[in-house]
Structures are given as C-alpha cells and as structure tokens.
Amino acid sequence: MTALAVDFVASYTPSSEAKIAFAWNGRHGADFDDANMAFRTVIGDYFEEHAQACSLPLIAALYRAETQWAKEAWCVKSVVAELAQELLQRGGVAYLDVYLAGACCGMDACMESGNISLSKTRCEELLAYCKASAFNAEAGLRERWTMLAQRFACLLAGAA
Description:
Layout: H1 3-10, H2 37-49, H3 56-73, H4 79-91, H5 96-103, H6 107-113, H7 120-136, H8 139-158
Helix pairs in contact: 1-2, 3-4, 3-5, 7-8
C-alpha cells in the first residue's frame, strides 16, 4: 500500500471525509464519474489488509461513500460487506444508524451489507436494540427497524 494511504488512515479525522466521500457527477453509464473513487479504492484496499488500523469514523465514512456509490453505480463492491461487519462488530449500536442508512442505498447495498458474520453477543445486542427501536418508531421507520431485527435474528441463528 502507498505511504499516502498509511498517512491518511493514521491521521484520519472526520474533516478528512471529503477526500473519500462519494463525489458523483450526476450521470450514469459511460459518463458516470466519482472524483474520489480512485483514492477511496486505495483506502478501501488498505482497510481490507489492515482493518484494525482503521478507526471507526473512517470505516463509517468509507461505508457511507461505498453504499452511496453502489446506489448510483448500480452495482456494489465486496468491501461493503467487510466495512459493514467491522463497523457493527467493533462499533455496535453506536453505528446502527450509519449501517441502516447504507443498507437503504438500494438493493445491491442492502444485500451486500447483510453478507456479514457477527459474534453471538453482538447479534443479541443489535437484535434487542432493533426490536426496541421498531416498537418505539413511527410507522415509516418501523419497517426498517423490523427488517434489521430480522437480519440480526438470522445472523444470530448462525452466530458462534
């Protein structure tokens, strides 16, 4: 990995997010362009090799950008599942809103965000939180929390 990626990861702060954020030109097909995609891909590759070196705010920013990219690119990168898994396993309930927003960025992002494995303890925590949130949510959000509760219930059935 490049020294630039190592430096970016080591010094990342939320004010650095603009360098990896989804920067779409508003077009699709051959005219599609995301000005930050090349650098974000380098950072994503670094994450895949050194996830523990990446802070949760950086992982959240990468996940946000990649799920937004997936929505407009009409496809998804496998790094989305790895980001989602790390975000939830390390961050737990504190990052559920970020996870939910990304999972709601179209079918591709939704499916890939669910391609994760979590510990039994983390699944139980997330499932309980989602059930409570669904119970207390307004009608429009209740469906999303219920969908997440179902996702974590399925994960829990297979969790170690």
